Amino acid sequence: MGKVLITGATGLCGRHCCHKFLDDGLEVFAVVKDSSSTLPKGVEPLVLDLSEDWQDSLLPDDLDQIVHLAQSPYFREFPQNAVDLFMVNIESTARLLDYGMRVGIERFVYTSSGGIYGNGTQAFKENAPVVPSGRLGHYLGSKACSEIMIHNYASFFKVIILRPFFIYGPGQNKTMLLPRLFDHVAASKPVQLEGSHGIRINPLHVEDASEAILRSTHLDESAIINLAGPEVLSIREICEIFGTFLGKPPVYKAIEESTSDLIGDTSLMKTLLHEPGVCLGDALINLGW
Fold first, then answer.
1. Contact yes or no for 179/241 (Cβ under 8 A)
2. Which of 167, 181, 192, 274 has the most CB atoms lying inside 10 A of its own CB?
3. With contact defined as beta carbons under 8 Å apart, do 168 and 231 qualify?
4. Which CATH architecture has domain 3-168+204-227?
């Protein structure tokens, strides 16, 4: 039975991953911000705040892999909370990499973001260029920075960089894109659309995301892999699905901007990890939004 350390264990993906890791026979250590955090039975909590100075003496001295899912909740609050984002998104990555090398881990899994590709008219493959650093913004810049650091450790252990696209699921923060659109439709608030349909995306249900993360802990090679859902939908199509479910016609407000999509190519995900199968319309009844 292998040992895995997971950060972001109480987040949307982290909660699902903890269950999957346990079912996979792993011994799970979860980094949590405070002792009141709720975790599945069998997960050992490790209380430390990644946004502050922390000691890796609190972490296991015998470990097989690290799954680094944590990110600062203040990703939209720049420059007010820039230091918090730096500590959680960049410094903690550097320190976990160093710690992992010292204890002899076999694998480091990191969740970056599909947003680092920017927008385009075609689905992005993993070898597509990322947005130049000056145009990434603070949050996506922190993801790109961590990716650069992680690559330097590929000679010490396997490094798996996952780039998710619009993960959604039950209990998700209401400020995220899909629950925010759902609430707009529910309240008959206008949804802004670029052009007539808005951008196209391929959102990923947390069940598919967490299954892909689990399978990444079995990879025998370093890799960069997009994580995205099985269907490509425009913002209008998403809102129509929500409207049908709610019995309310969506209200739209068109804005005169060119449409530019953010779609992840999932060929590598299907080959190496998991073929996503959860469609948005089928998932709604269990989302609880």
1. no
2. 167
3. no
4. 3-Layer(aba) Sandwich (3.40)
Token pair recorded at residue 188: 């008959």
Q: How does DSSP classify residue 29?
A: E
Question: Is residue 203 within 8 Å of 178, Cβ to Cβ?
Answer: yes
Contact (Cβ atoms closer than 8 angstroms) between residue 139 and residue 90: no
> Do residues 143 and 113 touch, judged by C-beta distance below 8 A?
yes
Write out pLDDT tens, residues 243-264: 999 999 999 998 877 778 999 9
Instruction: Please give the torsion angle defined by the CA atoms of residues 238, 239, 240 and 246, in that order, rounded to the nearest 10 degrees.
Output: 120
Burial of 99-111, coded b for 16+ CB within 10 Å and e otherwise, reads: bbeebebebbbbb
For 8-24, b/e burial (b = at least 16 CB within 10 A) is: bbbbbbbbbbbbbbbeb
Per the document, the length of the chain is 289
Helix, strand, coil percentages for the chain (3-state, nearest 5): 35, 20, 45
> Measured between alpha carbons, how far is 37 from 120 in angstroms, rounded to an integer?
40
DSSP SS3 for 58 = helix
| Nearest by Cα to 143 from 69, 64, 236, 46 | 69
What's the first-to-final CA gap in the chain, in angstroms? Answer: 37
CA 67 to chain centre: 12
Helical ranges in the chain per DSSP H? 12-23, 82-86, 92-103, 138-151, 177-186, 206-216, 235-246, 267-272, 280-283
Residue 110, H or E segment? strand 107-111
DSSP 43: P
Q: What does the angle CA 276 – CA 277 – CA 280 come to, to the nearest 5 degrees?
A: 110
| CA 26 – CA 9 distance, rounded (Å) | 15
CA count, 13 A, side-chain hemisphere, 39: 28
What would the mean pLDDT of 206-230 be, rounded to a whole number? 98
